[in-house]
């Protein structure tokens, strides 16, 4: 087995002005590591700080750099990036290299202290509970969480910076599995893409080993009841993240050899995660987006396999995306006509080939459409945020009516709470962002299984791609109403259907930007990225996309520090 590679503090892990800026428990807590190890709360605090790096909100900026949406401000970072604004020295979409490595180093410190010593009744200097059995169980739980979080940040690095270099090889990021201080400096190259996947998988396996499948049975584990397990990593989350990592590894953009066994591994892993969680129906719309399931403090939403930290009593999404008339909303991220056209008819047929029973009418384009269109997209004539939306030409919410009005004729509805009021008296809501969802897991399996077997009905991996995809479509269309899915027999057609389902089901969940990249056929293929986008007002192109590479560049600051980092193709 390859020796683990340890990453440096200054030269590689993060972009800091000085060595002292690097994360160190002593600096963060103003306590020595020895004192931290004497206090459960201090020790747990190091793990909770790693949780705090998770996104509290889904980043719609990435969505607005795809064919799904635009920002209502043409100078928004998403627009500038999509129009060719990304370069080898500047990325308007932001960098996560520093934040991820900081979190990884914190986790490495935590894991280093969680040493299993069979000769000791307590595996770590920290005593979590008076009861030795409870203490040991809680120890395993927190160790599992640490492994999961490290895998999460590792995957984020791989997703953002993985790619093929000029030598034709697929690379990931420099691996780090040991806590490093300012004295641990070195210059190290990127690990291969597969090595990074293997590390993520190993961490997910460790997490799954130590974590309960879910935390419903772990509530109140400690005698003082100090831990609220809602939102913590679980075994199911670890299995789902592992499946996602394998899906990316099998995708054309990173699977340079076009190795079919990688798709088989992705299908097998996703099937395991589905079986572990239970092959269940998805929550019905609109229940999934109801206050009780999405915005309530209990967050009792079984389709969220892992969520971000709770945003309490906030109007963040609403302030950013409500129509301007709804209390001076920002109307920032506007769904495109491209996305609208991707939603099928109510019987599942695409609008380009509707069935006889549900013909598509361009003069009444919303009639007899997939129910997700009503759940996700806000259009003229709908009541929302205390107003009746009017985006027809010259309407009160149309383009030109306000500086923050929609450019496309549509406003975002997904994730927004229509009962929130932005004008006095202001009302707020709590919310959490889905980071790993059951629908994504099902779609991951459907894509991997049909690519691995070539047959939508093959059950080599316990389930068929068709029956799993049906779970996703049936939620939107209703059981027995999908007349289109049963007609698809060819592998190529089924893959296209899965890709479209990912587009609409996972819209505004930070998938489309990365899906389009992993689907690139080669290191120079940008055909799926550079699609012109349209609004409802005109057939004229609203924005032309000018991405130069399916991969993102490595942070320029990191490249300046060392000659050992090879950049992705297209950015040298």
Describe the protein in words.
This protein has helices at residues 9-13, 25-29, 33-36, 40-51, 60-63, 77-85, 97-113, 132-161, 193-210, 235-250, 260-277, 291-295, 316-321, 337-342, 372-376, 438-453, 465-477, 491-505, 512-518, 556-561, and strands spanning 69-71, 163-164, 170-171, 304-307, 311-314, 333-335, 377-378, 383-384, 387-388, 411-412, 429-431, 434-437. Strand 2 and strand 3 form a beta hairpin. By secondary structure, it is mainly alpha-helical. Mean pLDDT is 88; it is low at 1-27 and 293-297. It folds into three domains: 1-216 and 543-572, Serine Threonine Protein Phosphatase 5, Tetratricopeptide repeat; 234-283 and 292-306 and 436-519, Serine Threonine Protein Phosphatase 5, Tetratricopeptide repeat (Alpha Horseshoe); 311-431, no CATH class.
In short:
Helices cover 38% and strands 6% of the residues. By secondary structure, the protein is mainly alpha-helical.
List the helices and strands and how they pair.
Blueprint: H1 9-13, H2 25-29, H3 33-36, H4 40-51, H5 60-63, E1 69-71, H6 77-85, H7 97-113, H8 132-161, E2 163-164, E3 170-171, H9 193-210, H10 235-250, H11 260-277, H12 291-295, E4 304-307, E5 311-314, H13 316-321, E6 333-335, H14 337-342, H15 372-376, E7 377-378, E8 383-384, E9 387-388, E10 411-412, E11 429-431, E12 434-437, H16 438-453, H17 465-477, H18 491-505, H19 512-518, H20 556-561
Helix pairs in contact: 4-7, 4-8, 7-8, 8-9, 8-10, 9-10, 10-11, 10-16, 11-16, 16-17, 16-18
């Amino acid at each position: 087995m390859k020796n683990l590679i340890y990453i440096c503090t200054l030269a590689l892990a993060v972009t800091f002005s000085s060595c002292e800026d690097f994360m160190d428990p002593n600096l963060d807590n103003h306590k020595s590591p020895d004192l931290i190890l004497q206090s459960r709360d201090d020790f747990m605090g190091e793990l909770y700080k790693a949780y705090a790096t998770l996104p509290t909100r889904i980043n719609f900026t990435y969505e607005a750099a795809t064919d799904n949406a635009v920002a209502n401000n043409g100078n928004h970072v998403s627009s500038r990036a999509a129009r060719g604004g990304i370069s080898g020295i500047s990325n308007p979409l932001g960098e996560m290299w520093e934040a991820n490595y900081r979190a990884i180093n914190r986790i490495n410190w935590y894991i280093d202290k969680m040493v299993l010593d069979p000769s000791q009744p307590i595996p770590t200097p920290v005593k979590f509970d008076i009861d030795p059995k409870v203490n040991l169980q809680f120890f395993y739980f927190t160790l599992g969480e640490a492994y999961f979080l490290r895998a999460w940040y590792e995957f984020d690095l791989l997703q953002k910076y993985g790619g093929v270099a000029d030598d034709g090889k697929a690379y990931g990021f420099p691996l780090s599995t040991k806590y490093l201080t300012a004295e641990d400096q070195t210059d190290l190259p990127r690990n291969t893409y597969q090595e990074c996947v293997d590390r993520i998988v190993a961490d997910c396996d460790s997490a799954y080993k130590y974590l309960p499948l879910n935390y419903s049975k772990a509530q109140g584990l400690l005698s003082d009841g100090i831990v609220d397990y809602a939102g913590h990593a679980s075994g199911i989350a670890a299995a789902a993240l592992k499946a996602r990592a394998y899906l990316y590894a099998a995708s054309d953009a990173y699977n340079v050899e076009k190795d079919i066994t990688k798709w088989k591994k992705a299908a097998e892993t996703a099937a395991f995660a589905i079986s572990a969680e239970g092959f269940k129906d998805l929550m019905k719309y609109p229940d999934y987006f109801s206050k009780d399931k999405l915005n309530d403090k209990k967050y009792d939403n079984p389709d969220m396999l892992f969520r971000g930290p709770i945003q309490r009593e906030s109007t963040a999404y609403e302030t950013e995306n409500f129509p301007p008339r709804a209390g001076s909303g920002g109307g920032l991220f506007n769904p495109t006509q491209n996305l609208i056209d991707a939603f099928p008819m109510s019987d599942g047929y695409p609008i380009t080939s509707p069935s006889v029973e549900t013909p598509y009418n361009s003069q009444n384009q919303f009639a007899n459409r997939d129910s997700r269109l009503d759940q996700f997209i806000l259009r003229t004539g709908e009541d929302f945020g205390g107003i009746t939306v009017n985006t027809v030409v010259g309407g009160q919410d149309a383009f030109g009516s306000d500086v923050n009005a929609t450019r496309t004729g549509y406003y975002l509805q997904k994730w927004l709470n229509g009962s929130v009021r932005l004008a006095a008296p202001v009302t707020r809501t709590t919310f959490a962002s889905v980071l790993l969802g059951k629908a994504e897991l099902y779609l991951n399996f459907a894509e991997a299984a049909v690519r691995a077997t070539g047959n939508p009905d093959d059950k080599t991996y316990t389930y068929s791609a068709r029956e799993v995809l049906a779970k996703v479509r049936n939620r939107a269309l209703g059981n027995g109403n999908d007349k289109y899915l049963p007609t698809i027999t060819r592998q190529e057609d089924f893959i296209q259907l899965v890709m479209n389902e990912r587009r609409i089901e996972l819209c505004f969940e930070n998938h489309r930007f990365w899906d389009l990249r992993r689907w690139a056929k080669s290191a120079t293929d940008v055909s799926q990225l550079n699609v012109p986008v349209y609004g409802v007002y005109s057939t004229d192109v609203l924005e032309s996309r000018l991405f130069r590479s399916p991969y993102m560049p490595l942070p320029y600051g990191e490249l300046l520090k060392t000659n050992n980092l090879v950049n992705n193709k297209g950015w040298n």
